[in-house]
Design goal:
The protein has 25 helices and 33 strands. Helix 10 packs parallel to helix 11 (300-313) and helix 20 (643-655) packs parallel to helix 21. A hairpin with a 4-residue loop joins strand 22 (526-528) and strand 23. With 804 residues, it is α/β, with parallel strands linked by helices. The strands form eight sheets. The chain has a seven-stranded parallel β-sheet with strand order 14-15-13-16-17-12-18, sandwiched between helices. A six-stranded parallel β-sheet has the order 19-29-28-20-27-26, sandwiched between helices. The chain has a five-stranded antiparallel β-sheet with strand order 2-1-4-3-5. 33% of the residues lie in helices and 23% in strands. It is globular, with a radius of gyration of 31 Å. Residues 265-268, 271, 294, 296-302, 427, 451, 618, 620, 656, 660 line the site of adenosine-5'-triphosphate.
Length: 804
């Protein structure tokens, strides 16, 4: 096998395929599929992934690859195949599919440099060149371009005076530490110790240590354990008793933390019934997807833990996905507490180096479990026994950039290869998953009761319109305020939740709660402050913002929104004695601050935890007995067909923070639309009723799970160009669709201009279009030239979650 097929790192459509390269003799046997290599490509040297090896090629004059970047493959065969699948299902480039599966540290960074050619003599070159190089033989490309013109450089390069050099470098160095080990056997060590003069006590102490230790010891550790200085060790090294070496260490982000070991709990009946089919599936190597629908506080995590335990007993591995915001130390502790060092953790809070280290532990099979956010689904395990996705309804499992994959789909794809089960867990399953469970595509496992039969907290819905009518203009209803005061007296804790998404963007009447909706789409219009217009982002309808409420004629109609800071100020005015911890993007941007604030709250250093989405889930604190939702509706009016679903999920999750242990919990939800079914049913905490209601709405409006959707977004600096391309694409796609499918567009995107580029879109709704991806790909190929040279951008999102 002396030919390698290589996908090179040039994200462009005509290059999106493997190219054949010759493997130089000295590298035959070294180069393997899944390795990264440096190859010549045109005048450049770039990075590529080896996708396969072969004996013959259809091409005659093959270039030779230059060198490998890895000594072992970074992608195994399963992941290489998964890359092909990603390419087909999300319509991304092969290179993007491979890149997304490896840790960011491995993503090559090219440095482009301008170099004097070896034959050139600087003194004889034109003055301009001399001034660029300024007595050095290489300068950075940016610098050279700044000092000169491209055409001039081109001319000089043609004459052979200068050349371009590409330097590819890995971003991260492995972390190394000095370690000390013994060169002698135990007998020899004893002998040396006897022979040392009586007064060299410290050297004897060190030898003693190595008489009882077999492995190398980190220098720092040795010094502090024995209370000796480096000179003592150096002395022994000189005597050839000890030696020094470098060991690779992992940057363990949880290094200084001790995890108390936990034992499996005796399961409740619900848990027992849910885990049985999962264990059977593990036992029989069956590929099945389970939907574990368990109310908040029903003990889903224990089911995960004991399923993983079984997998580990069978010598296999487990992936656990958790949404980024609930990947808290509390969460990590639960897994590390049960499985200790067998657990690697991957989340965005880690430095690039830390992520790389965790990834390598997986690759070297030094760990058996990974707990991580979305991208951990690509963990390079080779013998998966289970994949668990907690809070499966979370939209953050969908990646919004290329490749636009959904972790749930990837999980199922991987589970097929590994013949293992997938467990999707949630207290508020996504409509899509629950519908699949209803149809029997997924197996439904239900845990309808809380631990120890604790009841779900009582929820009271407060109509803020009435508060206003009764003269209360504050952001706290009288009921909520009373209950807060009560908890402050009892020294119990309070969570106040402010939904910040959708800030200021819709128009609402404060007297009657009326929100201005689109005529055609049943979705709220978005307010544009600059021209006082309200617009529909689905169909393009627009109208002027009303001065009076069309419903009740009140003048109190305006765009809506409040910030956490404002709430904090108001709290300090009306309840100066209350200690408040505010958690939002501003207070948690520093590394570790998220954790610190939660710890403070858990230790009882504050009475009220005030925050946005990031406090909605995962918290399991015994002393929280009151949850207040300040404005339940802000998300309801986002231009998104999933807004009711998201509202219901969020309200249910937040409510679930109260009364999880001995103390009973209460929830107050403040709203301007108490009659909306997602608010009402969140109050009743009735998922099934909500599901039934929402399915009707989706069916009427032809949205998922009844229809699939795909979104094409076109952008260009010129408005007319964006429109005309979108028009052509829409017509083309429409001609390829069956009669039952719907193509909505062209219409301006919800965000019609970004960075001075105009954006237009076309939304496709369909039930069955097996050829759609092919047509979309063909359309992209067709515009390839304009995409490269004409500044056109076309993005295709198959199954989009954000329709902006
Ligand atoms: N079998 C058991 N016996 C005793 N306590 C248990 C058992 N299973 C779980 N618990 C405890 O019950 C509490 C709630 O469990 P857990 O947090 O796993 O619920 P959950 O279903 O994940 O809830 P949420 O969806 O709200 O995160 C935890 O404190 C957990 O330690
Ligand atoms: Zn009104
Ligand atoms: Zn509309």
């Amino acid at each position: 096998m002396n030919i390698a097929s290589i996908v090179v790192d040039v994200p462009a459509r005509q290059i999106d395929k493997p190219f054949d390269y010759l493997i130089p003799d000295h590298l035959i046997g070294v180069i393997q599929p899944g390795m990264r290599v440096i190859v010549p490509f045109g005048p450049r040297k770039i990075q590529g992934f080896v996708t396969g090896l072969k004996e013959t090629s259809d091409y005659k004059q093959l270039k030779a690859l230059i060198e490998p970047m890895d000594l072992t493959p970074v992608l195994n065969n399963e992941l290489l195949a998964l890359g092909d699948w990603l390419t087909e299902t999300t319509l991304c480039y092969k290179i993007s599919a491979y890149q997304v599966m490896i840790p960011p540290a491995l993503k090559a960074k090219y440095e482009k440099k301008l170099k004097l050619s070896s034959t050139a003599n600087l003194e004889e070159l034109p003055f301009d060149i001399q001034s660029i190089f300024n007595n050095q033989d290489t300068v950075s490309w940016e610098e050279a371009v700044k000092l000169s013109s491209l055409s001039f450089l081109q001319k000089e390069a043609a004459e052979g005076n200068i050349e371009i050099q590409y330097i590819v470098k890995d971003r991260v160095k492995k972390k190394k530490l000095k370690a000390i080990y013994s060169l002698l056997s135990k007998e020899q060590l004893s002998f040396e110790k006897e022979n040392l003069p009586a007064h060299v006590v410290k050297q004897k102490k060190v030898i003693d240590f190595f008489l009882h230790s077999d492995s190398p010891v980190e220098m720092r550790e040795l010094l502090s354990a024995l209370g000796v200085t480096t000179s003592v060790i150096k002395g022994l090294i000189q005597k050839k008793i000890l030696a020094e070496m470098e060991i690779e260490v992992y940057r363990d982000p949880y290094e200084d933390r001790n995890f108390t070991r936990t034992e499996p709990l005796p399961l409740t009946e619900d848990q027992e019934n849910s885990i049985r089919p999962i264990l059977a599936s593990i036992e029989e190597n069956k590929n099945e997807t389970f939907l574990l629908y368990g109310v908040t506080g029903s003990g889903k995590t224990e089911v995960y833990l004991q399923s993983i335990q079984k997998v580990l007993q069978d010598g296999k591995e487990a992936i656990v996905l958790v949404p980024e915001i609930s990947l808290t130390p509390q969460m990590v502790r639960r897994f590390k507490g049960r499985f200790g060092d067998q657990v690697a953790v991957l989340h965005s809070g880690l430095s690039v180096g830390e992520k790389y280290d965790e990834w390598r532990k997986i690759q070297r099979q030094e760990v058996k479990v990974v707990v991580g956010a979305r991208s951990a689904i690509f963990a390079p395990f080779q013998n998966l026994g289970i994949i668990i996705i907690d809070e499966e309804h979370e939209t953050s499992y969908k990646q919004e950039e290329n490749p636009k994959y959904h972790a749930r789909d990837v999980a199922i794809q991987r589970s097929i290869k590994h013949n293992c089960p997938v467990v999707l867990g949630s207290a508020t399953p996504s409509l899509d998953s629950y519908a699949r469970a209803q149809k029997g595509v997924y197996k439904l496992l239900a845990m309808p009761k809380r631990m120890n039969n604790q009841s779900l907290p009582a929820v009271e819905i407060i109509d803020m319109r009435e508060e206003l009518r009764d003269g209360n203009r504050s952001m706290f209803s009288r009921t909520l305020l009373e209950k807060i005061k009560d908890r402050l007296e009892k020294k119990e804790q309070i969570v106040l939740f402010l939904n910040k998404r959708g800030h200021s963007s819709f128009v609402m009447c404060r007297d009657c709660g009326y929100v201005v909706n689109c005529h055609n789409c049943d979705i709220s219009l978005t307010y544009h402050r600059f021209n006082q217009l309200m617009k529909c982002h689905y169909c393009g309808y627009e109208a002027a913002a009303p001065k009076h409420c069309p419903e009740c004629n009140s003048e109190h109609i305006r765009y809506f929104g409040t910030g956490t800071q404002k709430v904090e100020e108001e709290l300090s005015k009306i309840l100066p004695e209350a200690k408040v911890i505010r958690m939002d993007v501003d207070t948690t941007s520093r590394k570790g601050s998220h954790e610190k604030l939660l710890d403070q709250f858990q230790e009882g250093q504050a009475d009220i935890l005030l925050g946005t989405q990031m406090i909605a889930k995962g918290l399991d604190f015994p002393n929280i007995t009151l949850v207040g939702v300040l404005s339940a509706d802000t998300m309801l009016h986002l231009p998104d067909f999933r807004s009711s679903e998201k509202t219901f999920q969020l309200l249910t999750q937040v409510s679930g923070r109260a009364g999880r242990h001995e103390l009973e919990g209460e929830v107050v939800i403040q709203t301007y639309t108490p009659e909306h079914y997602s608010v009402e049913l969140a109050g009743e905490q009735d998922y099934r009723k909500f599901y039934a209601q929402e399915m009707i709405v989706r069916k009427i409006h032809k949205y998922p799970p009844f229809y699939y959707i795909s979104l094409i977004t076109v952008s260009h600096e010129e408005l007319l160009k964006a429109v005309s391309v979108t028009e052509k694409i829409t017509a083309y796609i429409q001609s390829k669709l069956s009669k039952d499918s719907i193509c909505l567009g062209p219409v301006a995107s919800p965000i019609p201009r970004i960075n001075n580029r105009y954006r237009y879109q076309c939304l496709i709704k369909y039930k069955r279009e097996p050829e759609l991806n092919k047509s979309l790909k063909k359309m992209l190929d067709n515009y390839q030239q304009e995409i490269i040279s004409g500044g056109l951008q076309i993005s295709v999102d198959v199954n989009p979650f954000i329709l902006m």
